[in-house]
Structures are given as C-alpha cells and as structure tokens.
Amino acid sequence: TNVRLRKQQREEDLKRRRELVDGDDNEMSFSPLTYSGQDLTVLVQAFYSTDPEIELQSTTKIRKLLSHKINPPIKDLISLNVVPKLISLLRRHNSEAIQLEAAWALTNLVSGSSEETITVVKAGATEAFFEILSFPSSPAAVRDQAIWGLGNIAGDSVQLRDYLLNNGIVPLVNKQFDESSTMSILRNITWLVLNLCRGKPRANYDLVKLFLPLLTKCLFFNDAEVLASS
Q: Which end of the chain is more exposed for a tag (fewer CB within 10 A), N or C?
C-alpha cells in the first residue's frame, strides 16, 4: 500500500491539473458528471462561434469542465477538435481574458494520459506556450499558465522532456525568472525546471546546468514549494 501511495504521489508531482477556483463550481451544469456527449457537441459548436462573447463564454465552460477533479472530459474534447482553436485563442494577444482561459484549458488537456498529451503537443501547443513566454507584453497570469502547461508536458515522459530541452526552453525559462515575480510564477518555474531535470535516462547536463544560477537564487526564497523544487 505504501509503495502504491508513493508511486501515486510521484505521478501527481509530475503533472498537475489546475482545478476550479472559488465561484467556478456554483453551477452543476459545468460538471462532467452531468454533461452528455450531445451537450459537449453543442458546447463545441458554440466554441467555434465568431461572436466574441459566445466564444469567451464557451471557452470558459470548456476550461471549467477540464478543471474538475473527477472525470474531466479530456479525451472527448480532444476528439471534438477543440485543441487547434484553443491554440489559436492563446495567440490572440488583444484579449487577456480569452488567452488565459485557453492557456488554462490547454494546461489541463496536457495533464491527461501520454497519448492525450502527445496529441496536444503535435497540434502545436508547445510552440504556442513558447510564444507566450517570448512575447514581451504577455500578461503575467497568461505567462504563469504557459509555464504550468510546459511543466505538464515536461513531466509526461523523458521523450517530451528532451523535446522541450532540444527546442530552446532553457533560455526562455531563465528569462521568466524575476525576483519580483508572483510566488505562483516562481513556484511553477521551479517545478517546470524540476521536471526538465528528472527522469531516466538523465537529461542533457550541458543544457540543464544552465538552470543553476536560477536555482541558486531560488534557495534564498522563504517558500516551501520553491525550496522543495529547487
């Protein structure tokens, strides 16, 4: 039993679903337990609306469904082809609200199985997250969510970990570090770096050693999560 619990904890440490926030779960209609396949189809049709208000409302509903602890419909929504549109919305730099909802939804889509995560990555999620971190005026909340999403991708497998390392994530992450950043960003940065450094076979030391200055600075933060990851 203890071995199973430790294994479960390790798996939970590798991937994290961002759950509902206060006020999100007031309506049972947002629960995956009460949503039918037909409901999802109707929701995705609204999601592809050209009306900005309907688009935001449906994106928010998708994000809420994916944020539930029990049976989030990751596979179903991927099958209904929401990923390309979410990636497109993440690149919509004139609307922080819809960018954040899209980033949050994508983060939770890559918290599922390896097959689901790979599908989202192949659709271009990694490049979209990278763009958020490269764009100087990206809002802090959206950058934070992109870092979280990349942490889930890195934690999925050593193959995806190495894919990120070999495609330029190290300098991008180092640029995100700022001692004045929110504690949430600092926690997600150190957790992402942890996922980029662990696993067997080991990560390329010539790449991950470039995180050492960042991690050294993190050792001086009075925060349990930052210190544990560092």
A: N
Residues 6+ apart with CB under 8 A from 67: 17, 18, 19, 20, 24, 104, 108
Sign of the CA dihedral 75, 195, 172, 138? positive
68 token code pair: 């539930």
Q: Which residues contact 174 (CB under 8 A, 6 or more apart)?
A: 210, 211, 213, 214
Q: What is the mean pLDDT of residues 39-49?
A: 94
Q: Which one, of 114, 97, 96, lies nearest residue 157 by Cα?
A: 114
Rounded-to-5 percentages of helix, strand, coil across the chain: 70, 0, 30
For residue 3, what pLDDT is reported? 40
C-alpha distance from residue 73 to each of 30, 99, 186 (Å): 11, 21, 29
Residue 228 pLDDT grade (very low, low, confident, very high; cuts 50, 70, 90): low
Contact assessment for residue 151 and residue 195, using Cβ atoms and an 8 Å cutoff = yes
Look up residue 154 and give its amino acid.
A
CA gap 224, 27 in Å, rounded: 34
Asked if 221 contacts 186 with a C-beta cutoff of 8 angstroms, the reply is: yes
Of residues 153, 147, 159, the one with CA closest to residue 201: 159
Q: Which residues contact 46 (CB under 8 A, 6 or more apart)?
A: 54, 55, 57, 58
Neighbours of 80 (CB within 10 A): 18
Top pLDDT among 3 and 72 is at 72
Whether residue 136 has a cis bond before it, omega within 30° of 0: no
Helices (H), 67-139: 74-79, 83-90, 96-109, 114-122, 125-134
